[in-house]
Amino acid sequence: MRRWMLAALAGSALTMAAMPAQAAWKSYINRELGFSFMAPGEVKASVGTYRGNIAGPRQTIVYRSVEDNIEYKVTVMSFIQAQAEGANILGEREYMFQDGKKVLVDTFARVEPGKDSVYGRKIVVDLPDKKGRSTGAFYFTRGKLISLEATVLPANGDFASPDPGRFIDSIVFVLSRTEPGAVELKTPKLE
Amino acid sequence: MRLTALAALVVTFAATTAPATAAWRGYISHPLGFAFAAPGELKVENGTYRGAVAGARDTLVYRFVDDDIEYKAVVIDMSDKANDAATLLGEAEYNFQEGKKVLMDTFGRVDRQYGRKLTIDLPNNAGRATAAFYFINGRIISLQATVLPANGDYNTPEMGRFVDSITFFTVRAEDDAIELPVRSK
């Protein structure tokens, strides 16, 4: 009995020692902005900027974490007064993401079933100068352009990692579908 | 003299053996805000469109057929849901290619309008279709060219010529463009 217990303990210890030190994936929700997602690492909020020919200059809200040399980023921009231009604003953002880069995947994205569906685009690109591989998903809903981008950096090197896909596929717009216990995200104030 | 007559005969012979395709003409709709070019005789029809998000919609179709290629400019009014433009456009693009073999799916970009261009093979060898989709002024505008089996030239440049002829800056339309009726009679 004692040998079995010792063997079980040793086995667990060896397994835990051999596993890479990765953070758990947590669910995050922003009720004000109307979406939730999952990501590993510590998610921090900040304010950024964006410029497009159609979109013009915009302040952005960015939720970002880095884990195991993969950067996870959710960027939100408000276009409440230009919602009818949503298709163009979204198209411009998608185009800019892949412009000048090697495109590996460019396909439909769809979140939520039936009449709640939100259509967008999923794109995977190799960054120039071997700076990594980036997977992006782009949506325009309820007056906001929402981008999810996961970039596998050269220090990680596993460009076929499933983690970028797990991240961008975790987005939810019908908040009743969010995992219970999601961490509430604060919305940074824009100038 | 003899040579001239002979040359005239050759030209006449060449003209009679060339495929009978109609001339391309420009068409414009000032109320709807777009113009395009197409061959053949214009017919204006009513149609229907349905999407899970869009719901059931009436459509206005400008249709041409020439040399067994069908050309359609489809207008779907979404003005009551214009704020969902991105999703409505994405749904229309998705519905076009669902269940079909997709040969091309790429950006469409015309006159500050971003849309999508797709080429698909229709099931049961029913032909090949190229389409472009844009959302402007509360409407989905889609140009669709279908090469039918009776034509069989699935690499014809006519499909691209049609879908790439669209312009949303009406000043770019041909001077003699024909004004399109807004409603079918």
Name its key features.
heterodimer; A: alpha+beta; Protein Transport Mog1p, Chain A; seven-stranded antiparallel β-sheet; three-stranded mixed β-sheet; 3 helices; B: 185 residues; alpha+beta
Summarize the model shown.
With 191 residues, chain A is α+β, with helices and mostly antiparallel strands.
Describe this structure in words.
The complex is a heterodimer of chains A (191) and B (185). With 191 residues, chain A is of the alpha+beta class. Chain A has a single domain (23-184), classed as Protein Transport Mog1p, Chain A, CATH 3.40.1000. Chain A is 19% helix and 42% strand. Chain A is built from three helices and ten strands, in the order H-E-E-E-E-E-H-E-E-E-E-H-E. Chain A has helices spanning 2-18, 86-98, 163-168; strands at residues 25-30, 35-40, 44-52, 56-67, 70-78, 102-111, 118-126, 133-141, 144-152, 183-184. In chain A, the strands form two sheets. Chain A has a seven-stranded antiparallel beta sheet. Chain A has a three-stranded mixed beta sheet with strand order 2-1-10. The longest helix of chain A has 17 residues, at 2-18. Chain A is globular. The model of chain A has no long low-confidence stretch (mean pLDDT 92). In chain B, the strands form two sheets. Chain B has a seven-stranded antiparallel beta sheet with strand order 3-4-5-9-8-7-6. Chain B has a three-stranded mixed beta sheet with strand order 2-1-10. Chain B is of the alpha+beta class and 185 residues long. The longest helix of chain B is centred in the N-terminal third of the chain and has 16 residues, at 2-17. In chain B, a hairpin with a 6-residue loop joins strand 7 and strand 8. Helices cover 19% and strands 44% of the residues of chain B. Chain B has three helices and ten strands; from the N terminus they run H-E-E-E-E-E-H-E-E-E-E-H-E. Chain B has one domain (21-179): Protein Transport Mog1p, Chain A (3-Layer(aba) Sandwich), CATH 3.40.1000.10. At the A-B interface, helix 2, strand 6, strand 7 and strand 8 of A face helix 2, strand 6 and strand 7 of B.
